[in-house]
Design brief:
5-stranded antiparallel sheet
Length: 103
């Protein structure tokens, strides 16, 4: 039985799909697909526009494992391997804006 405090959230960037919650096997599969699609984009094989976009957007935040904790989420980026805490009061910032522009 899966721990109900754990969710897997995806936000596809380099492959088709919509942001949603998925199971762990799907999260692992999508992480692999995103890595492969990113490698193609960053190589320039898909054109200069895709290469430039990939160099700015990178791979962070596409596939996350989130564990509910008091006051927020412990987050593990399943592609980059980064681990951090995201408080419930976290204000998401659109990727094209800096925190200074939003605050």
């Amino acid at each position: 039985m899966q721990d109900s405090r754990i969710i897997y959230q995806i936000q596809p960037r380099y492959v088709a799909g919509e942001p949603r919650q998925v199971d762990e096997p799907s999260a692992l599969r999508i992480a692999l697909q995103e890595r492969l699609a990113y490698a193609q984009a960053i190589s320039g094989h898909l054109g200069e526009d895709k290469r430039s976009e990939a160099s700015l957007m990178r791979l962070g935040g596409i596939v996350e494992m989130r564990v509910r904790r008091p006051g927020g989420w412990e987050v593990v980026d399943m592609i980059e391997g980064k681990r951090f805490f995201r408080p419930h009061s976290y204000k998401a910032v659109p990727r094209h804006k800096s925190r200074e522009e939003v605050d």
